[in-house]
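Figure S4 source data
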Amino acid sequence: MASAQASQTAANAAATKAQASTSAAQAALQSAQSEQSVAQAAVNQAAAAANQIPSSTITLPAGYVAALKGYVKGTVTSDELNKIAAQGLNQFYDFQANAALSKVIVSQNGSAITLTAQEVQNLSLYAQNLINQIRAQFGTRAVLVTQSSLDYVETVVAGYNAAGKAPTWHNEDVLNAADDQYGTMFNENMNIPYVGWFPDEVTLNDLYYDTYQGIVSMLYADAHANWGHAKSLAGDLGNNFYDDAQQYLG
């Protein structure tokens, strides 16, 4: 009898141990599933962030439209225009950082910036919105973002990258080659971005800020370029070639 009881006790103990092992396995599985869910949530959050397009506003200083148009006609000097335009430079501080986009890292330790097609499109739509705000205040034709314009700019970027160094000026060989391929005429506004100063980490938010501050600087601090960038952003004032041409953006 004692032997039978001992066997039963051992069996019960084994069953208890098995149940404990099962419970531990279930807990481990639940923990792993929880960690996977957290990881997937982070991936989903990053993807959602990458699809966000921040909202930014450009409101031209009083008198700026008339002054730039007057400069084109020769009735306003560059110095006179510059005094009015300088009032708009405080818009540098109007950019609102996007917390979600600040978590999307697109470059680390000086590596090439890598963007998805959706991120490129969203950045282009962001620039389109800013430029069209400017053009609405000038009464000029809006720019459009299309798949063809995105393909075009991808070709231009590939050409710049193939040159093997960061651009400091317009590469007309690259631009003319793209125009020959797509049957277009380029109108490139270039701004050297600040992200190059901080090669350790670049986020999507940085790229949106670069786009914003680049447009603001070319709009209001352009005397050195005879206000060519500003005229282009405003709708190519004084350039009759573009009067009937639809412009596309990438």
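Figure S5 source data
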Amino acid sequence: MGTKTTDEATTETGTGATGAATEEKAAARTAEAEAAQETETAAEQAATGTPAEAGTETAGTAAAEDDESDESDASDESDDDLLDDLLDGGELPAAEPPAGVGQGAAAVVSAVLGLVSLTGGWIGSVAAARETLVGQLQTSSSASVAKQIKEIYGDAWHTTALWAGLFALTALITGVAVLARPAFGTPGRTQAPWIRSVAWAGVVLGVVGLLLAVLKYTDALLALPSTSS
């Protein structure tokens, strides 16, 4: 019963060989398919970029979007807080004015007034002309020469000196006020150098103009001519 015939042994041997050949063919087909798949994958990566680079770009874009979202949320929260303060009866924060604008303007005014004091100015010229006219009307032709000179020219000269002195005094006071302003202002806020320079120029011109005005008014400078023979 356990003995096989020659035909049966031959049949089993053929069947085993056929099965082995079929497995080898299947394995070869699987290897070819894997190789083709790897080739296609490599071609796609070469055409569109590596997956690592794509992942990095995607991560960077996502991070940028997250930052923009955080900034937008912070801005929205700030606006909401400001709106809540207004609804609760609060006030908007006052805008701080630029520092030194008024002081700079005052310094320029001081320098200009000091310069005007040296020339007499338009007002001084008009006042002197008016004083000359008044002297002519009030002085008779029979008056002495000394009186005519005094009434017509001397009073006009003194009027010019008086107006020049007023301009000089105003320039001096304005310049000193600008230089002293930081001592009474906000602590820690320094004055611009150009403001101090212009203010000092106004002070110097004011002092010089005031000195000249006093000398002219007292006849110490450019006194009236003597009429004595």
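Confidence is low (pLDDT under 50) at residues 1-6, 8-14, 51-59. DSSP finds six helices and no strands in the chain.
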